Sequence to fold (629 residues):
Amino acid sequence: MTDIVPNLLRLSSEISDVTEFWDPVLDLILAALPVEAAAIVRATPPNWTVEAVRHVSRKGLPLELAADAIELGQVTTESGWLAVGLRLADRARSVAEPGYVLLIRGKCSEAQLAVAASRVSDALVIVERQSDVERRVERLAAMLAVTNEWHQTNEMETLLNRMAEAATRLLDADRASIFLWDKPNKTIVGRPALGIEGGELRLPDNAGIVGQVIQTGEPRRVSSEYDAGEIDRAVDLKTGYRTETILCVPLTSPRGERLGAFEVLNKKRGAFTFEDQRGLMELAAYAAVALENTQHFAELLERNEKLVEQVAQDTLLVGESAAIQAVRSIARRIADTDLAVLVLGENGTGKEVVARAIHFGGRRRKYPFIAVNCAAITETLLESELFGHEKGAFTDAHESRAGKFELAAGGTLFLDEIGDMSLAGQAKLLRVLEEKVVVRVGGSRPIHTNVRVIAATNQKLAELVRAKRFREDLYFRLNVVSIELPPLRQRGDDVMQLAEHFLRQFCKQAGRRMPKFSAAARKRLENHTWPGNVRELRNLMERLAYLSGGEHIEAEELAFILTPAATGASLFTAGRELNEATQEFQRKYIEQAVQQARGNVSQAAISLGVHRSNLYRKMRQLGMETAEE
Fold:
C-alpha cells in the first residue's frame, strides 16, 4: 500500500490531462490492493461515463452503488463491490458537475479503500489544477486572438455576432447572446437572438436568469435537470428552441458600470462548469472593453466621445496663475496641429500633464497616447523599444514586437527626459522624425509612422547643445514650439487650488468626505518651497486623504519630505570669505521671502521685519533687481 504514494506523486507530476490519469491509476490500485476488478466512473447527471476499467465489462459495473457513494460521501458496498467518491479540487461546484467514483471488487477492506481513495484524490487535485492552468493559458491565447478581431470593427452588429461566435466556440456551447441594459427604460436587449424577427429580443430587465444577473451582478449556472423552474420557457416558445443548460455572467465596463449580460446556452457535453464560468467572465471583461470602443454602442450607452471628454477633463491644467494661463493658451492653440513640442520644466512640474492636455485637446484624442521615459531605456534597447524588432533580431527576440512609434499610430508619442538620450539614439530618432518611416531591428520593411512627437526635459537643452551632448539638428527639430512650466513655488494661489483638486480626487477614491484645511495649514502650504513641485503636493494630498482623521487638516499633519536641496547647505561651502557668504545668504533669503509673498515686496518686508524702503535699499546694495513704484 505504501508504494502507491510515490507512484501517484510521480503520475501527478507527469500528467496534466485528467482523462490520461485514470488508466495508470487503476494499474497502481490493482498492484497495491487485493482487487480483482476496478473502474473509474464519472457522474455527469443524469448520465454516467466510464473513464477506465480493468478485468470487468462496462455493462457489469454497479452504477447505482456509485451514485450512493457520491450521495452519502462514504464507502458503500453491495454484492462484493465497493464504491467511494474521489475528492475534487477545492473550488465552487454545483451538483450538476462531474463527480468521480472508484469502484473495486475483491477482498479489499473499506478502510484500505478509503485510504487508497484519499491518496488518489490528492493526486487528482494536483492533476486537475495543472489541467486548469493549461486550459486557462489556451483559453487566454484564444481570447487574445478573438479580441484582436473585435478591435478591427466598429460596426455594432458585426461585433456582437463575433462575440457570440467566440463564446460558443470557446465554451463548446450551442448558442450565445449579449444582452445590453437599457436602464432608463428598464429593458434588456438581446443580440444576436436567433429565431426572433429582426434578430433582437427585448425583455423586462428583471426577466429570467439574465434579469437576475443584471440586477445582482452575480453569475448564474442553471441546468434543467436541477433548476427547471428557473428557465423562462416563454422565450423558448418565441424562438422554438429548447433550453437545457444556461451560463450567464454580468457584462461590466472597466469603470464598474454594468452594461448588460453575456449568456451561453446548452453546453454540448454535460453542464456548464465553474471553469466555464470563469472563462466566460474573462471573455465578458474583454467584450465590455471592445463594446465601449464601438461607435454604435457609444450611441446606445452614452457616446464614446463622452469617455474621451472625461479623460480630457482629468488632464486639465489646474490653476489660474498667469504662467499657467499662458501654458494653457499655448496648449489649446497648438492641440489641433502637428507641430513638434518641447516641454521644459523642473521635475514634478507636470510636463506629461501638459503633453496629455495637448493630445486630448486635438483631433488625435481618439488614438493612443504613449509615454516613454528615455532615461529608463539603455542605449542597447532604445532602438528596439522605439522602433520594434523582428523575431530573432537579437538573443532575446523570441517573437516580433511593434515599437512605440507603431503603437502610437495616429496618436501622440511623449518622449520624457529627452536630454538623457544617447547621441547614437538621437541620430536614429532624428532620421525617423524627418523621414516618418521606421524599420524594425532585424527587419527591412519600411513602416510609415503618423505620430505626433512631444518631448520633455528638466535639463537646459541649449547648454547641452553647446557642450556637444545633444544634437543641434534634433534640438531644432523638436523645438518648433517650446512650453516652459514654472515651478510650483512661483505659482501663487495655484498651490491651494491644486491641493484641493488632488485632495478631492483621493478622498473620492478613499470613499470619505473631503476635509477642510485650517488657516494654519493653508499658510504652511502657501509658504512651503515645494522642491518636488506638483508631484510632491499630489503625494502629500494622497497621504492626507488616506491617513488624516477628522473634518479638518491641521498644520502639524503636513509632513513635508525634506530634500538635500532644501537644507541650504550649499550656501556655506568652505573657502568663501565671510562677507561674500553673508551677502549670498541675504540675497537667497530675501528672494525666498519675495517668492513666498508672491512678488509683493511690501508683504515680504513685513515678514522680514523691516520697512519697505529699507528692504529696497538693501536689495540695491546686494545687486538685486527691484521694481519700485
